[in-house]
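Quick question: what would this complex look like in 3D?
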Amino acid sequence: MKQHYQLAVIGAGPAGLAAATVAAEQGIEVAVFDGQIAPGGQIYRAMESIPQHRASQLGDEYQRGRKLVSAFRASSAKYFPETQVWSLNGQREIGLLLQGQAHTVTADQVVICSGAIERPVPFPGWTLPGVMNAGAGQILFKAHGIVPDDGVVLAGSGPLLLLLAWQYLHAGVSVKALLDVTPMMNHLYALPRLPRALLAGHYLTKGMQYKRDLKRAGISTLHNVRSLRAQGKDALQSVSFLHRGREQNLETAILLVHFGVIPHTQLGRVAGCRHVWDESQLCWRPQLDEWGRTSVAGILVAGDGGGIGGARSAEHAGRLAALQALYALGTLDRATRQRLARNDRKWMREESHIRPFLEAFFRIADDMLQVADDDTLVCRCEEVSAGQIRAAVADGHRDSNQVKFLTRCGMGPCQGRQCAEAVSHIVADASGKAIQDIGHYRPRPPVNPLTLGQLAGLHSEKAE
Amino acid sequence: MKADVLIVGGGLMGFSTALHLAMRDTRCIVLDKGSPGRHASGVNAGGLRQLNRHPAEIPLSVVAADMWRHIRELVDSDCDTRFPGQVRVAESETELESLEKRAALTRSLGYQHEEIIGPDELYGLVPALAPHCIGALICRSDGYGRPFHTLDAFRRKARSLGVYYQADTRVDAVLRDGDEWRLSTLQGEFRAPVLVNCAGAWANHIAAMLGEPVPLKPGAPMMMVTERLPHFIDPVLGAAGRKLSFKQMQNGTLLIGGAHMAELDLLQERTEINWQKLALSARSVMTLFPQLKDVRIVRTWAGLEAFMPDNIPVIGASVTASGAYHAFGFSAHGFQLSPVVGRILSQLILDGTSELPIDPFRIDRFASSGRCA
């Protein structure tokens, strides 16, 4: 492995593929570090190996990925699959794990394309075996074709929930019920944003199509569901909830939940990039300029990792970040950068029309975000409950980090990925402060697994 | 606001001092530029070590050890302390000789807490240790605690005795007005006849305002913690030939330190892990416990601490101003001393003298060398 690259792209989803391809076309040295075994990221996972019949089940959007991947494969960008990035610092030194060997390499410009993670929303019983993130179910489905044979209950909110139900439907899986926890009031708040959303009408059309198909297949969708609760002794047995004022109970061994997606920010955070609270998307995201530049020189973020915009938007953002990186490297002059960016900017604007509507429409109810039930575990690694967090706040610990120090919340192997947002909500609510002031856990690398033996064997490309 | 004593720095030294003063009915205000225990006090390795202390620190450390054993009486909490002993292993004859010399020195000073043990006893205590070690220096009454819980216990107890604490309050200027100190901050002015500087890595700024700058150097020793493992080792382990501190915490995680330094941006209060140096700590662990090679590192971090050129702290009265006192520069081994330092300062302030020998820690010891930060 070389010790230094002009551009390092982290992640090979739509943003990473587009960024690497554009940059490599201009003749610079590009390395793409990807945790997956093949390019495509989450949305275009297993793109190159998926059988045609299953690809068609997964819809047209999925096909779009093929084009991206083949352009990337044809470029001179060096691709490192199954490469875990465990660290990035402000000097753009990247910690990598490749076939069990730890390395550090450096780059003049780094584009982080880490994508999104599903928004973790703790609710009573969410840690029971049998309760799974819908995305995890989807990954099983996409990569391995594994589907639960006894049927599933789907619960949550957001556009992906419909898509997933639709995909299961097409794969012949029985969906016992679709529990939509989106508060009815959202429709009202989303209404003023509808006219703009109509400018990106194809998304709405698609959503309607999913709904129609689900209805036609006889899948019962319950709206405005509240007080979602997973029940069972050692594993999930049933799901209870409130619907139209009545307590209901559904027996199921598998509950797939999905509450939308949020940016995966750990790498930018550990590099020291400034992050801000996005009240519309209800998540932390890096502060970016129009090119994707962060507050740290030479580090850019493109795609959902910088704020949720979807796969198409990510592609444009990836190209814009690459153009900026090329400009910073002196490969492109300013005028060329502006000219080449024009098209992507236009399309990104088109893509953005739908977001305010979607964000308002699918906004999760406050009592869910703030984990109303004191006994619910928020940090599943260290088993810290919402009540313990509120007690710490009552005792004078007024930000996420103090709460973490005291309760160990966020100190487990997931590095707070699962609980950071929930803790921000709870602490803000309990202390009456704004989430921006509550702050986020300070990052503690490694952000991906690294063993003592691997660190001991660290091969420093820099030292050679 | 007015009080009897103003304490700058809401870390362990500051709260311990406030607590001891409050126990003697003295009204204290603790000011901190950030949040309590944000730096060294909250994120250190938690070692309660008398073993291998600088001779000047031994008298204080021995008294502190006794205070730790009864820490619940002081702060209503055991601070998650355990006392399984600390060992410092020798991997060669030369290292063993140096440890023997050290044990002799401690005995010659009249202290009995350090002993040499042979391989049989060492491997009886630490069966998991790689077989090449030939002996160790041990202090059986040593142990460890949980730093942030300790800080929290000191803070609560101090608060319950009427200590006023204010976070996010940076001292911009120190003025003497007759018999009173006036500290100006963006959050207002604070006044008291006595001022105590427990400002850790920023203590030289306060000292400079008092006209006695010191060659303090901020540093950020790196640490790492692993996933939880089944219990396999009791004592805290160090090595004569390595920068290493290794312990298994109550919850099964391994806490590994070694005083290798992170990159530091003092202005931003940010540290960045130096992986090449941290790899040295991992290599030490691999040599002493090769069976741990597949254990996952969960977190690494570095806390900001004040280091003095001679690696011992500044404790005592100001030599330039009356009614001002210092306790800082503990050079990454202050956690164990914190209860006794609070007591010493309370005695200096209220009685004018301390029962323990603190002359080696006087602030003007650097003056003749001409080195100033």
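Answer marked as accepted. Chain B touches chain A through 34 residues (CB under 8 Å).
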